[in-house]
Amino acid sequence: MPNHILATPLSLANLGKLPERVARPTYARADLSPGILHFGIGNFHRAHLQVYLDRLMNEGKARDFAILGAGVTPHDTKMRDALAGQDWLSTVVEQSAAVSAARVTGVMTDFLPPMNGSAIIRALSDPAIRIVSLTVTEGGYFVNPALGKFDPDSPAIVADARNPDDPKTVFGLILAGLKARKAAGVAPFTVMSCDNVPHNGKVCRAAVAGLAEAQDKGFAAWVHDSVAFPNAMVDRIAPATSDRERAITRDQFGIDDAWPVFCEDFLQWVVEDDFPAGRPAFEDVGAEFVKDVTPWELMKIRILNGGHAIIAYPSGLMDIHFVQEGMENPLVRAFLRKVEREEVIPIVPPVPGTDLDGYFQKVEERCLNPKIGDTIRRLCLDGSNRQPKFIIPSIADRLDRGLDVTGLALESALWCRYCYGVTDSGAVIEPNDPNWDRLTAAAGIAREDPAHWLGMRDIYGTTADSGAFRDRFATSLRALWADGTEATLRRYLDGGM
Predict the structure, then answer these.
(1) C-beta separation of 230 from 275 below 8 A
(2) Sign of dihedral through CA atoms 85, 89, 91, 92?
(3) Euclidean distance between the first and the last CA atom of the chain, given in angstroms as a whole number
């Protein structure tokens, strides 16, 4: 194992100096030209879309679809600063339980200064940009979770509606770019969401067109009619980068990378083929193009993302740090299996060419991977945005069919108990949600009055109107407070809830 002093700083000039076991681009940066502008250059994007592009470019394809980075947050500035020093290169470490492999990707040619609206709009106006892609997180689409619709009253949206020539949001910038292209007679780009959001293309269209409605109704109609927003299902676990990952990249692969990406070896992308301005041949390197992505989307969101939530909150309350450690806990794993097989999988519609139980078994295998280093805290993050997408729809579907929701109600109660901000052992849970103060206050009241938690209508909507759900939730929450997480899980698994 090489000493970190001997590690090679990542740069274009040093690609030839990297150890032979590190895969590197066969294409030259000079041969690339931007065709995609991407908002949100984070770990998932670099482990997903950039990997597909890297595979294509290594085959001599899509070299006019290089990535131009863009962003609107201080985090984007940090990422840009880190990548600028290494010529926009990224080390991607793919890890199965048995093997770890590193590759360097070079598909990004530049990263515009974040929050520089004029520079971003100029780039969006360039006819060479045919796709604008986004990874702006589940909560970045200004959706009212209770209504499931775009919220035009969000302060940032109101601000952009009033100042269309100086937008600050991603959607305001996209609109400004589309206006400039329309005025110049340039065909619109395709807007491709790569976020883990149900019907992400539809949601993205609602945000862009919804903001346009507040600015110019005629232009909003043009956006609806003329701009493509394909839906897609994306999947790969790519945890946050810490000093741990930097050290492994340095000591095991001989690369000094300021922000390497670690991810599982599993990779999936199912996307609707709606790209009027053209696209790379992603199907040549493993992507699936379909007419309607809904079946794959529902499967993934309900089974995988819902499963993450089922694992997350009992593990968090029992002071478990890593996801694989949660899966190794017999109570947590049994809880996951019981809820999935009895309440989640039975209401997931069929998926062409896919065995749902086999898919779930693959989820278990992925979550047990000891090399990923994914944390329980990450799975617990942002529950106020994730629960309405990943858990509450399953509850609603079962209630609509008159089916029992004991396990899912317990999961919801575990989330409430977690948001109280203290584990079963008394350890403090640091804020882990954009709405943490509100959630903590509600969880405190719910300790004595469980119905108060379900009164957050923007999260639970009409689901909380169900007496069966309210009763199951209250029983679960009271058990968690009276007996703790471990005893409550045992009672549920024994059929005593």
Answers:
(1) yes
(2) positive
(3) 52
Amino acid type, 387: Q
Q: Going from the N-terminus, what domains does the chain have, and what CATH number goes with each?
A: 4-290 (3.40.50.720), 294-493 (1.10.1040.10)
Question: Can you tell me which residue has the tokens 């300021």?
Answer: 258
CA dihedral (163, 164, 169, 171) in degrees, to 10, reads: 150
291 Cβ partners below 8 Å, 6+ apart? Answer: 272, 273
> Strand ranges (DSSP E) for 151-267?
190-193, 232-235, 255-256, 261-264
Whether the CB-CB separation of 204 and 141 falls below 8 Å is answered with yes
Q: What is the pLDDT of residues 75-103, one digit of tens each?
A: 999 999 999 999 999 999 999 988 999 99
pLDDT in tens, 221-276: 999 999 999 999 999 999 889 999 999 999 999 999 999 999 999 999 999 999 99
Instruction: Say whether pLDDT at 55 is over 50.
Output: yes
Q: Specify the 3-state DSSP secondary structure of 16.
A: helix
Is the distance from CB of 329 to CB of 436 less than 8 angstroms? no
pLDDT of residue 145 exceeding 90, the answer is no
Give residue for tokens 């300790």. Answer: 447
Per the DSSP assignment, residues forming a β-bridge with 215 are none
pLDDT tier, 198 (very low <50, low <70, confident <90, very high otherwise): confident
Distances (CA, A) of 471 to 132, 204, 392, 466, 478: 46, 36, 16, 9, 11
Q: Kindly report the pTM of this predicted structure.
A: 0.86
Overall size of the chain counted in residues = 497
Nearest to 154 by CA among 136, 174, 179, 172: 172
Helix (H, G, I), strand (E, B) or coil at 312: helix
For residues 213 and 207, give the distance between their C-alpha atoms in angstroms, rounded to a whole number.
Answer: 10
